[in-house]
Each structure stands twice: as C-alpha cells, then as structure tokens.
Amino acid sequence: MKVINLMQKPDLPGSLLFQPAGLLALPHSVEVSDALSVNGSGVGGGSNSIKTALGEYFERRHFYREILSSKYGFLSESLTGAEVNSFARAFIQTASRKVSIREVEEHKFTLSKVVRALDFSMCLIPTVCISLSSYGLDDDNFIYPLRDTCGCSFHWCPNLAFFRRREGVS
User: Fold this and answer.
1) What is the pLDDT of residues 137-168, one digit of tens each?
2) For residue 10, how many other CB atoms are within 10 A of its CB?
3) What is the reported pTM?
4) CB neighbour list of residue 46: distance below 8 Å, 6 or more residues apart
5) Distance between CA atoms of 154 and 15, rounded to whole angstroms?
6) What is the DSSP string of the chain?
7) d(Cα 65, Cα 37) in Å, to the nearest integer?
8) Which pLDDT band holds residue 35 (cuts at 50, 70, 90)?
9) What band does 22 get if pLDDT is binned at 50, 70 and 90?
10) In this structure, how many other beta carbons lie within 10 angstroms of the beta carbon of residue 15?
C-alpha cells in the first residue's frame, strides 16, 4: 500500500510504501521518501517498521539538508588541543590523499556549531564530519570523503537519547 502526502509540506515525507510480509513469520517492510530523493526504510513487526523507516528518513533528511555551516576557520579556534589532535589523527586516516597532522591543523575548514556530549558546551567542528551532502564543502571533502550516518541518531525522546531515561523517571 502506498500513502502519498498531497499536502506537499516540506517538513513531512512525500510518501510511505507499506510492504507486508509474504509469510507471517517474516517482518514487514516500509519505505519513506520525499520529492528530493531522501529515503528511509524500516523492517520489523507491527508499527516498529514504520517507526524505523520514519526515523531513518528524518535522520537522512537532517544530515543531507539541514546541517548549516556557521564559520570558516581552523580547528584550534574552538577546540581544545586534545580535540584538535584527535581530529587531526582521525583525518590523516580518512583523507583521500596523504596529509600530515600539521596540514590538517593548518587547513581552514567549513565549521558547524555543535554541543559537546561531555559537558553540553558549544564548539565548532568540521561540517564535513556531520553532513552527508558535499555541497559547499569542496575544500574539505578530500579529508573525509566517505561519510554515512550512524543509523541510531534519531530518537523520539531527547531524555532517552541523551540520558537513557524517560521523562519523569530517574
């Protein structure tokens, strides 16, 4: 069964495709997509397949289209020395050509504002680390060319996502 969103609202998916299992022992499959080719899929029993597909769709949509750059600058402008070193050591492994730690430290990145999970303080990290889109990241793509999302970054409840507990439950 295919459900099409005729409202054409950009904050909602354009269609949901429900594919019931051929045998009762197999899970259902759901595909969610929009007019700009962002897709999410989910497999599972009952509404879990719908929840999984919607979660993947919103995750991909976010990381493809909603990551904004705030600044153009060096890693050291808002990161600690240890954080700069960690990024540099990671990037010399992911780069599509040979680069040194010094080159990474002296490279001007397109940066995005994020919140540290450790203490909830703000900092700037390379947009290329969190955006699946290459748009506007031409100077940084060689440092981190192959990107994907973690597959579990979309949560229904922020408290559960950050603190592993539900609202009002300690």
Assistant:
1) 999 999 988 877 655 445 666 676 667 665 55
2) 11
3) 0.73
4) 28
5) 19
6) -EEE-TT--TTS-SEEEEE--SSTTSPEEEEEE-TT--EEEEEESTTHHHHHHHHHHHHHHHHHHS----EEE-GGGTS-HHHHHHHHHHHHHH-SS---HHHHHHPPEEEEEEE-TTT--EEEEEGGGT-S--TT-TTTTTTS-S----S----S-HHHHHHSS-TT--
7) 11
8) confident
9) confident
10) 14
Residue from 32, 38, 94 nearest 64 by CA = 38
**Residue whose C-alpha is closest to residue 63's, from 164, 134, 124:** 134
The rounded distance, in Å, linking the Cα atoms of 142 and 107 is 12
Give the contacts of 62 (CB within 8 A, at least 6 positions apart).
154
Residue listed under structure tokens 């600058």? 73
Identity of residue 156: W
Amino acid residing at 169:
V
